[in-house]
Automatic annotation (TrEMBL):
Signal peptide (residue range): 1-21
Keywords: Signal
PROSITE patterns the UniProt entry points to: PROKAR_LIPOPROTEIN
Organism in which the protein naturally occurs: Sulfitobacter donghicola DSW-25 = KCTC 12864 = JCM 14565
Protein name according to UniProt: D-galactarate dehydratase
Length: 188
């Protein structure tokens, strides 16, 4: 039996492209075809009525939690989800814990997320919904499971797609090869 070993960068590319292939299009990482962006923009505009929308001032007032992104990088030989996820049990418990009652979450929007680089440790979401790094929470709309994350800004329209870390994907029980609809709130 011949074994094929892919470098981590190749593994990341394969996982990202597999999600795009399921949609029938393959584009550069931050590019979304105009027709899809317009369609997504229409879907993003309808926030749930029970959460107030966050303002730029709200985002600036909330600082990212360094504990959520402080995991060490995975070893070069890592090839499984377990080996690539270097977060500690304590970090997973912290990310899974519901927001404190005194923290009022505010809605940043919804986004469609794919798996981000599995070699970047910690709980994070790279998204165009924020303009500065801040603390937030993502909720898998399919099953209601959520995770505290560090929200990291990327260029693109608010209706553009996002990339979610491997540990966060595992915690919210999202498929690593499918696109996942997430509700993104401020303040974790």
């Amino acid at each position: 039996m011949t074994r094929i070993f892919l470098p981590l960068s190749a593994l990341s590319a394969v996982l990202s492209l597999s999600a795009c292939a399921q949609l029938g299009w393959v584009q550069p990482e931050d590019s979304v075809p105009p027709a899809i962006a317009e369609e997504a923009a229409e879907e993003v505009v309808t926030p749930p009525s029970d959460l107030p929308e966050a303002t730029a001032a709200d985002v600036a007032a909330v600082k990212a939690d360094p504990v959520l992104t402080s995991a060490p990088p995975p070893p070069k030989a890592a090839k499984t989800q377990e080996a690539l996820d270097t977060t500690t049990t304590e970090q997973r418990k912290q990310a899974a814990a519901p927001a404190a009652p005194e923290v009022t979450s505010k809605l940043l929007g919804t986004t469609i997320a794919s798996l981000g680089s599995p070699t970047e440790p910690g709980f994070w979401l790279k998204t165009p919904l924020v303009k500065s790094e801040t603390a937030g929470r993502v909720t898998n709309k399919a099953n209601g499971k959520s995770s505290a994350v560090t929200l990291i800004p990327i260029d693109g329209p608010a209706s553009g797609g996002s990339r979610l870390s491997l540990p966060a994907m595992r915690l919210i029980e999202a498929s690593l090869t499918d696109l996942t609809e997430l509700e993104v709130t401020l303040g974790g």
